[in-house]
């Protein structure tokens, strides 16, 4: 676990982990009763009955997080609610019941509206919960979960990639039910403040409630958030405007024949966790809320801000006509210069900002396909359904394309690993049931959810974290608030011996990690050498990341007190692997 400090000031930054905790379930908050069992073959049959590329890619509605006064953007206050409604994922699929964001039930969408903010202009958002008394999807009360006494669906909103005060971070313990009738122990305000002081780029907002994030996101509580600065971005000459600058929110889902979203009702170890499973993989791939959509494009450059909002699925994306992606940004920040990639491996919650030049296409159509095994990297190969994402239909341009790809983009602070004041070892464990061999829980640094914080970075400093993955899967590591960058990835030698030692001592230095971390070095991809908030942690490897606890745009301190309650968290962003942070009990007692 972790704390964030300033000199003479401390506040807890909690670690997100998963563990077994038995909790009571109030009568009005029990998981929904299970429908008749459904097989994987039936789910594939339902998905396979849907013709691909018949629904047009939606342009999500936009909400401006500022107003113009005398030619300058000025702050506004928004009110956004969470609603239950019906949503059509496909022309031939009955409407699905979903939970979605919007300014009203009538305007709410899957995904939610794109919030467009202006760099340097703070935004206040009041988040409101209009969800029903019971969830539409199953959930598991044997993992740490927000369970209100009087019913209702707990929610709280986290702005992923945002640099904002801890009170506005969406602590998993700051949950609330409809009308704020019940609130979690870290809840303090219905209105969150986003300074938007960070670099222009794409973020996304989503539910973050304790133990329910996986179900609430599967139900639809997610949306995009874009920070813009025309003075900085216009000179770059990248494609712009609603038609040529598009957000693509990827999410896999499986459906019952009646259109209902499928989620498993039985866990891999039902005697331990009745419902929890380590991953969810849907048969249908949705983009902006439509299964396998198409988009008509002209022979010119387009900018796509790709966000993987799936629960556990990685995407390895490429175009069937051979066109490359030109990557200009990753997560919320620009790269220093464009990087060309023929394919993009996008982990859960990761984003890539790319340009595709359709004027170079030799075909009139191009599919976006996916080749990432699931779970990644050694799981099943994608099939004819989840191996397809969407299609572009290419036609002649009607006007001259004035966009360009600049030789240089934006600069940030240097990595400067030598400036680190602390080196930490962060270790990912997975624990399996002796009988079934299936995972029962995952820990980081062998710590339970309720254990005291062990990471106490100081605001304004740089640290190096050596992240060791002793599980069989790749885990997307997400740090709230901080920006970080992978600098090295090296394989573990004699991993089994190291793992046995770690399970006994839980101390990388005492287990002589330097003797084991001498395997083959894996190069960090050029398009991933930027300041990120999600980094892939490969199994059986040590990934070195440099973490900055200050503004990477200019090296300045955060423009707020980052040591306040309830702190921040870091966690694996596979939604079935993380039950987010707990309340800070210290209440800054060490401040002078």
Automatic annotation (TrEMBL):
GO biological process, one term: cellular response to phosphate starvation
Subcellular location field: Endoplasmic reticulum membrane
One Pfam family cited in the UniProt record for this chain: Cu-oxidase_2
GO molecular function: copper ion binding; oxidoreductase activity
Signal peptide: 1-28
Cofactor: Cu cation
Entry protein name: Plastocyanin-like domain-containing protein
Protein's organism: Oryza punctata (Red rice)
């Amino acid at each position: 676990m972790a704390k964030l400090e300033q000199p003479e000031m401390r506040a807890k930054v909690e670690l997100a982990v998963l563990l077994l905790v038995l909790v009571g379930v109030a009568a009005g908050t029990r998981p929904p009763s299970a429908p008749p069992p459904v097989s994987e073959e039936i789910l594939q049959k339902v998905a396979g009955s849907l013709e691909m590329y018949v629904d047009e890619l939606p342009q999500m509605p936009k909400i401006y997080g500022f107003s113009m006064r005398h030619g300058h953007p000025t702050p506004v206050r928004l009110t956004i609610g969470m609603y239950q409604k019906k949503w059509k994922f496909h022309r031939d699929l009955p409407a699905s019941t979903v939970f979605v964001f919007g300014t009203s039930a009538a305007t709410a969408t899957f995904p939610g509206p794109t919030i467009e903010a202006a760099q340097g202009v703070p935004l206040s958002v009041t988040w409101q919960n209009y969800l029903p008394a019971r969830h539409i999807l199953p959930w598991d009360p044997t993992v740490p979960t927000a369970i209100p006494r009087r019913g209702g669906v707990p929610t709280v909103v986290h702005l992923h990639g945002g640099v904002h005060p801890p009170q506005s971070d969406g602590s998993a313990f700051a949950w609330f039910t409809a009308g704020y009738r019940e609130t979690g122990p870290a809840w303090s305000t219905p209105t969150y403040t986003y300074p938007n002081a960070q670099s222009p780029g794409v973020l996304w907002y989503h539910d973050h409630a304790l133990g329910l994030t996986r179900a609430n996101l599967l139900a639809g509580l997610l949306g995009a958030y874009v920070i813009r600065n025309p003075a900085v971005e216009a000179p770059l000459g990248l494609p712009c405007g609603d038609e040529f600058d598009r957000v693509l929110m990827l999410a896999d889902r499986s459906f019952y024949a009646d259109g209902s979203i499928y989620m498993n009702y039985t866990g891999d170890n039902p005697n331990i966790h009745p419902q929890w499973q380590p991953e969810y993989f849907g048969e249908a791939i949705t983009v902006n809320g439509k299964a396998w959509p198409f988009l008509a494009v002209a022979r010119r450059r387009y900018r796509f801000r790709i966000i993987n909002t799936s629960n556990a699925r990685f995407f390895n994306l490429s175009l069937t006509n051979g066109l490359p992606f030109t990557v200009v940004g990753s997560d919320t920040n620009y790269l220093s210069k464009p990087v060309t990639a023929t394919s993009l491996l996008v982990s859960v919650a990761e984003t890539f900002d790319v340009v595709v030049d359709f004027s170079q296409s030799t075909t009139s159509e191009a599919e976006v396909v996916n080749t990432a095994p699931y779970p990644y990297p050694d799981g099943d190969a994608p099939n004819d359904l989840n191996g397809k994402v969407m299609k572009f239909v290419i036609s002649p341009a009607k006007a001259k394309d004035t966009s360009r790809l600049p030789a240089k983009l934006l600069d940030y602070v240097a990595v400067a690993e030598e400036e680190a004041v602390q080196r930490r070892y962060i270790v990912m464990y997975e624990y399996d049931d002796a009988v079934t061999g299936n995972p029962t829980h995952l820990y980081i640094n062998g710590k339970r959810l309720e254990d005291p914080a062990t990471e106490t970075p100081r605001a304004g400093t740089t640290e190096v974290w050596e992240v060791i993955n002793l599980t069989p899967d790749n885990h997307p590591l997400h740090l709230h608030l901080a920006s970080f960058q992978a600098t090295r990835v090296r394989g573990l030698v004699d991993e089994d011996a190291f793992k046995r030692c770690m399970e006994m001592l839980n101390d990388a230095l005492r287990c002589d990690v330097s003797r084991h971390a001498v395997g083959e070095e894996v190069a960090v991809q050029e398009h991933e050498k930027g300041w990120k908030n999600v980094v892939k942690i490969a199994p059986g490897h040590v990934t070195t990341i440099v973490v900055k606890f200050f503004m990477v745009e200019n090296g300045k301190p955060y423009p707020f007190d980052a040591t306040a309650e309830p702190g921040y968290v870091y966690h694996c962003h596979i939604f079935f692997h993380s039950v987010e942070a707990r309340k800070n009990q210290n209440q800054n007692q060490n401040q002078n």
